[in-house]
């Protein structure tokens, strides 16, 4: 999946034909050219959106790492669907972090590029600060030519994250080093016991503790363990939520003060700038027609902070997982014009959909996972985790879910009262 902006020159494949957009006309009309026969047509934007939602329309993929289709004159897919399938994802993340501040500059100048080069090259001299600022475990010295090249690749690839992956993604990777479970447990143990304490030892000291413990283990064991690198330990530390880190190393009060800006509410200025997602297990037990208990439904919903409109949801049973979150994400970004035709009793159109700029979620396993991070990277979405035990951080969706549960309870009580009123009074129902 990737984001697309309708504009002249954009090519797409529909019904086994290749079209090119010539002009965006008033009233949401799009004039296109049939590249096979040279004829021009006019589609409505809604027709294109519906075809895209149904899988009948595929936009052209440009830039690096595109996959050439054997039965088409344009590429409509990448060599891989997600960045986790390549071992060079950390390199691509570093490139993206470098160019990220430059992407939205209206008049980007050479002085801006030079300033960014100086910032990065100064930053990487301190590994700890580099990892904290860049939010990645890979970093290297860069140059103006490299940044120009990465910006060009990213823009040509329709701002798809995969366009920053190197072209040699198919090489190597068979004998990549993986930490043993013993070393991983040691790292987690010392982070919990040493780093997350009021002593506030440094990352370097935490790494030294781990190194000493691994060396001590190797003295008495036939299976020698490989000593983890400093950057590996830092990567595990970076996984600790910032609220939990401040609370453990300083105090809970310090953590609350640091995140106190939520009291006045987060300000947004346009739709899809901030989308909040949360999950709730509904306190209603669903029973089938045959009397079999199905269980309590899990409801995942997304709300737009600016318009307060619901962008998408997903309902499931059983323990919620990352798949349920992906279904909700898909519902957020797809056309919902089918709702009116499928449910005639609904009078208004559900027109809310699109790619969010920022998504705010909590630290549940159904949200905080590699699949969610990869999807947001590919779509250019900023992923923001709410601090633990601070529901106000995403207050809009919290309030909606509370009201939804209350509404379901009221509907249940009303229906129950109607059912009971139909029974004869002498039966004491």
What are the main properties of this structure?
five-stranded mixed sheet, 429 residues, alpha+beta, 14 helices, globular, disordered C terminus
Short description:
It is built from 14 helices and 14 strands. 39% of the residues lie in helices and 16% in strands.
Describe this structure in words.
With 429 residues, this protein is of the alpha+beta class. Helices cover 39% and strands 16% of the residues. The chain contains 14 helices and 14 strands. The strands form 4 sheets. The protein has a 5-stranded antiparallel beta sheet with strand order 4-3-2-1-5, with helices on one face. β11 and β12 form a beta hairpin. α7 crosses α8. The N and C termini lie far apart (55 Å). The relative contact order is 0.09. The C terminus is likely disordered.
